[in-house]
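Supplementary Methods. Inverse-folding protocol.

Structures were first reduced to a discrete structure-token string of length 251. This string, shown here, constituted the complete conditioning input.
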């Protein structure tokens, strides 16, 4: 990789890191379709390469969210432990699935999630709270499902956890994004290990992306705390639709 390619990939990492901090997802969700469209990587290689950027981004974003909006340790550990265990299962399944089938499944998953988030714009849910509506042990079920999907699709499960935490558990958007990062931290690390073990990582491409993400993710976290909550939800839904569209363009 020459200096120009490194610089361009670093800039891409900066953009992805900013988006990851904004939505509390580490940047992997947009990185996966971007790597497929821009670099022609197959689905598993794109997911594994994105994880190299996602893991440090998630850890840094989690710290930043915790600084601004304290995360309940009991809730975070429940999500993290259950997500970690199921991420191993999802990642083990993912490396054995046909790449084209994986791409289609990922696009459908994002589309359904985006439509769910958009439909919530027309509901009149109770205002988000720092106290969960459901008993905290139910977080283990959420962590398990999100960890399984995160291991399968390489996105840490945050895209599922955020809308469920806000819609079912009654958390505020910012609280949900912080807890989703706590869920994603160990599960993304476990998923990366499995993808790397099966040679589904382009390390030369991943390194500048990871560096760019680390340089910029704090900007996204700062922006997330400055935006109105409803706008943040609309942007998150639009972001999911964009990612599904990018995956569809690879057909």
């Amino acid at each position: 990789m020459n200096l120009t390619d490194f610089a361009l990939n670093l800039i891409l990492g900066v953009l992805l890191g900013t988006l990851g901090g904004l939505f509390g997802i580490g940047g992997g969700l947009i990185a996966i379709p971007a790597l497929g469209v821009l670099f022609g990587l197959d689905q598993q290689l794109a997911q594994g390469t994105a994880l190299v950027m996602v893991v440090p981004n998630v850890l840094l974003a989690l710290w930043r969210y915790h600084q601004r909006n304290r995360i309940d340790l009991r809730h975070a550990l429940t999500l993290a432990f259950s997500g970690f265990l199921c991420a191993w299962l999802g990642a083990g399944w993912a490396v054995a699935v046909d790449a084209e089938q994986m791409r289609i499944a990922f696009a459908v998953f994002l589309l359904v999630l985006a439509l769910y988030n958009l439909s919530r714009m027309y509901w009149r849910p109770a205002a988000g709270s720092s106290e969960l509506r459901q008993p905290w042990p139910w977080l283990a079920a959420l962590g398990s499902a999100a960890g399984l999907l995160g291991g399968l699709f390489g996105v840490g499960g945050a895209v599922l956890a955020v809308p469920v935490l806000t819609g079912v558990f009654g958390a505020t958007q910012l609280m949900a994004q912080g807890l989703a990062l706590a869920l994603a931290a160990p599960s993304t690390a476990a998923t990366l290990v499995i993808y790397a073990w099966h040679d589904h990582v382009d390390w030369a491409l991943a390194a500048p992306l990871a560096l760019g993400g680390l340089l910029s993710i704090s900007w996204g976290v700062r922006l997330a705390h400055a935006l109105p909550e409803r706008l943040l939800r609309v942007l998150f839904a639009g972001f999911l639709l964009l990612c599904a569209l990018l995956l569809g363009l690879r057909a």
